[in-house]
Design a protein that fits this description.
Elements (H helix, E strand, L loop, with lengths): L8 E5 L6 H9 L8 E6 L4 H12 L2 E8 L2 E7 L3
Helix pairs in contact: 1-2
Length: 80
């Protein structure tokens, strides 16, 4: 995935514990247009399982799910 992905909404989820990072992404997905991307940064390692599982179950797409400098960074694309 290119670093040139256009991000429509940034979410700072640092300090939130499972399942809140996933809940916040879920609550905000409708705040971006279809095809839009949310960049979410979390510190809870549980988000690495929760956010991709939520995306799969809702038909959205995780473009990126990586650990960077002790934080978990996600790019989630709204598909529908």
């Amino acid at each position: 995935m290119s670093d040139e992905t256009k991000v429509d909404l940034e979410l700072d989820l640092k300090g939130l514990l499972c399942p809140l990072p996933m809940v916040k992404v879920s609550q905000n997905i409708t705040n971006v247009p279809v095809g839009g991307v949310i960049r979410a940064v979390a510190t809870d390692p549980g988000a690495m399982a929760d956010i991709p599982a939520w995306a799969k179950s809702t038909g959205n797409e995780v473009l990126k799910a990586e650990k960077e400098d002790g934080e978990f960074v996600f790019l989630v694309k709204r598909v529908k």
